[in-house]
Amino acid sequence: MPNERLRATLQDSDYDERSLAAELGLDPKSVQRWITREVTPRRTAALRAAKVLGVSPVWLWPNLGTDRRAASQAEIVTLYPHRSEVPRHLWLDLLATANKRVWLYANASLFLPEDNPESVDIIKRKADNGTDIRILMADPDSELCVRRGVEERLFEAIPSRVRMALSYYAPLVGVSGIDFRLQSETLYNSIFVYDDDMLVNQHVYGMYGYMAPVLHLRRMEGGDFFDMYTRSFERVWEISSKIEESNFWKQRSATLSGQPLK
User: Fold this and answer.
1) Cα(34)–Cα(49) distance, rounded to whole angstroms?
2) pTM confidence score
């Protein structure tokens, strides 16, 4: 029997038998046999083909089973050695196409609105359409935020950058459908979730965030990477506080209203 799942996936993609074979470095006849004779490729080839086509290898070839290690490896779309090398359009593309959830967790995320000024308005529209929006940033008055500045030898610049970022994101505070919180925990990784895609900025002691690696993940059934980082996000989320309750926000509100802070 022919592999109709593979045939349909190819038809819905930008590939055909010949171009997929070229992408994988294989003879087009091999890909043709996968379709017409329902031949199951070797696991490495199956994982590469599934990643290129953006689907689960188990969906295309159920007899591969649910090998957790293989599924986890297949979740890795790519790895960028530095955040500065992530294509600028990718941040906006993932945000614009997300419908179920947009979760942002970082100390500042200042680069997002600076590189893509329209991102704040997009987030607001997403919330209006029912997307689950969670924004989690550092409390600029926390001891750990100050310590981060010492670690990166930027000192008071880190709390200042967080305050600047919070000013960019301020129009999202109090918007229906947007949950905005501040946290005072050690930031091991910055985590950006867009539906089933995730960008993880893996921080390195003493290095600026833009110099640290970024891992692009796409959730796959049976994989571990995506869900592991999701659980980490949720753990910090549970112990964070609403931004309206922070001393930073109270001081800002008092300053804007011209009233002394009580």
Assistant:
1) 11
2) 0.73
